[in-house]
Design brief:
It catalyses: 6-phospho-D-gluconate + NADP(+) = D-ribulose 5-phosphate + CO2 + NADPH. This is 6-phosphogluconate dehydrogenase, decarboxylating. Pathway: Carbohydrate degradation; pentose phosphate pathway; D-ribulose 5-phosphate from D-glucose 6-phosphate (oxidative stage): step 3/3. Catalyzes the oxidative decarboxylation of 6-phosphogluconate to ribulose 5-phosphate and CO(2), with concomitant reduction of NADP to NADPH. Helix content is about 55%, strand content about 10%. It is an alpha/beta fold. The chain has three domains: about 5-175, 3-Layer(aba) Sandwich (Rossmann fold); about 180-430, Orthogonal Bundle (N-(1-d-carboxylethyl)-l-norvaline Dehydrogenase, domain 2); about 435-465, Single alpha-helices involved in coiled-coils or other helix-helix interfaces (Up-down Bundle). It has a seven-stranded mixed β-sheet with strand order 3-2-1-4-5-6-7, sandwiched between helices. The chain has a two-stranded antiparallel ribbon with strand order 8-9. α4 links the parallel β4 (about 70) and β5. α14 (about 315-345) packs across α18 (about 420-430). It is globular and about 80 Å long. The protein starts with a strand and ends in a 19-residue tail after the last helix. The structure holds 6-phosphogluconic acid (6PG). 6-phosphogluconic acid binds near residues 129 and 186. 6-phosphogluconic acid binds next to α8 and α11.
Length: about 475
């Protein structure tokens, strides 16, 4: 009974995470029903003296020291419930289960309440960074009982990615706070991926840039204020040759994007909360439109589109850089706005500066911007929206003429930039003291007697229109 940490689910993520734990000198024991996966762990390399695994649940349970800390890295959904049920008869009061998958936050709340009755602490802990992150240092977003967290804290702080020595993990709040934050992280991820792909499309279609030139541009951007994991891997992708042919791999990949649902959940829940996240909404819609490949091919033949307009190469590249920078800020602003509102609605008591901090390394949306974002929330804990942060006003202002020109140029050239345009129009609307929604109120009252408020006096009004 001397293993510090248990891990259920020895797929790629699980194997990498447990080896990371062992590398950090904690004794870790893995469990998977599949003996092949158990065996695979022992061939992976790493600190094998500190790690062992079994396909026998009793052996696994008996190996763990009290209170047991058992992390699940299994697919979200019913499997999580099944694993919990299989563990339960073997557990003792005070043991801790941590779900490291992308579980839906209400499932986490249900499981937490159910297990609390049995004296078991349950954590939903989003883990970001893919397989490499799990092995070398992910960003971890745990939520659950603050007291019980003290048992997991040293392990998580050791295995998490570090930003200037600070671990990218923190206890974010009670119940499903961690899963919720990870869900919104993924919504922002969808937005940033969509924006990057639009900039790629724009540069390629209008300037006819080669993959090599695109590689150079993204690589240069990644060394400057656009420094981010997604820009970095985009540069890498353009340099990848195709193993199965002569060309570049990116050109051989089918343009139909798949999704597991976390981006969609972010949009759906933002709608429920009444918080606008149009950049994320559009990113989900674009994956859906991309899936309609066969219909797109038919439609493409039915309509003509303009040729991309003539434009100076360096000018468009500079416009694209500013547009990407602005729209990354817009994506973060929307996601963080949603988190701030969800924090009140679900009583998570989130500290937005801490969330921005633990996203600075390890996770998919890490970027050079997050340090400044964290600072903005340190300056004003209850900042409703990043666009209101004084430090961000000049950053955004400086890009806006280019963003407007880029969206106009793309529209005139028949190149779809829905993420960029949604980000721009989100900005235009959010920063307008007057919007034409007075007309909507008039229409609602006209056809449905839904009443309206006035700008010059208090009260609720109704008019017999046309009389
Ligand atoms: C991460 C990612 C990860 C997610 C994939 C795939 O933070 O490491 O968000 O958790 O599962 O990005 O998501 P989709 O299949 O929905 O694109």
């Amino acid at each position: 009974k001397n293993y510090d940490f248990g891990l259920v689910g020895l797929g790629v993520m699980g194997r990498n995470f447990i080896l990371n734990v062992a590398d950090n000198n904690f004794k870790a024991y893995g469990y998977d029903l599949d003996q092949e996966k158990v065996d695979a762990l022992k061939t992976e390399g790493g600190n094998l003296e500190k790690v062992d695994a079994s396909s026998d649940i009793t052996t696994f349970i008996n190996a763990l020291s009290a209170p047991r800390k058992i992390m699940l890295l299994v697919p979200a959904g019913k499997i999580v419930d099944q694993v919990i049920e299989s563990l339960l008869p073997h557990l003792d009061q005070g043991d801790i289960i941590i779900d490291g998958g992308n579980s839906f936050f209400t499932d986490t709340d249900r499981r937490e309440a159910y297990l609390k009755e049995k004296g078991i602490n349950f954590f939903g802990a989003g883990v970001s960074g893919g397989a490499e992150g799990a092995r070398k240092g992910p960003s971890i977003m745990p939520g659950g009982d603050a007291e019980a967290y003290t048992h997991i804290k040293p392990i998580f702080e050791a295995v998490a990615a570090k930003f200037k020595g600070e671990p990218c993990v923190a206890h974010l709040g009670p119940k499903s706070a961690g899963n919720y934050v990870k869900m919104v992280h993924n919504g922002i991820e969808y937005g940033m991926m969509q924006l990057t792909s639009e900039i790629y499309d724009l540069l390629k279609k209008s300037l006819g840039l080669s993959n090599d030139e695109l590689h150079q541009i993204f690589d240069r951007w990644n060394k400057d204020r656009l420094q981010s994991f997604l820009v970095e891997i985009t540069a890498e992708i353009f340099a990848q040759k195709d193993d199965l042919g002569d060309g570049d791999l990116v050109d051989m990949i089918l343009d139909k994007a798949k999704q597991k649902g976390t981006g969609k959940w972010t949009s759906q829940n933002a709608m429920d909360l009444g918080i606008p996240v149009p950049t994320i909404d559009v990113a989900v819609s674009m994956r859906e439109i991309s899936a309609l490949k066969e219909e797109r091919i038919v439609a493409d033949k039915l309509y003509s589109r303009p040729e991309p307009q003539e434009i100076d190469k360096d000018k468009l590249i500079a416009m694209a850089e500013k547009s990407l920078y602005f729209s990354f800020i817009a994506a973060y602003a929307q996601g963080l706005h949603q988190l701030a509102d969800a924090s009140k609605e679900y009583e998570y008591d989130l500290d937005m500066s801490v969330i921005a901090k633990i996203w600075r390394a390890g996770c998919i949306i890490r970027s050079g911007l997050l340090d400044a974002i964290s600072e903005a929330y340190i300056t004003d804990k209850s900042l409703p929206n990043l666009l209101l942060a004084p430090a961000f006003v000049p950053k955004v202002q400086e890009t806006m003429a280019s963003v407007r020109e880029t969206v106009a140029y793309a529209a005139m050239s028949g190149i779809p930039v829905p993420g960029l345009s949604a980000s721009l129009n989100y900005f235009e609307a959010y920063t307008s003291s007057h919007l034409p929604l007075n007309l909507i109120q008039a229409q609602r009252d006209n056809f449905g007697s839904h009443t309206y408020e006035r700008i010059d006096r208090e009260g609720i009004f109704h008019t017999e229109w046309g009389k």
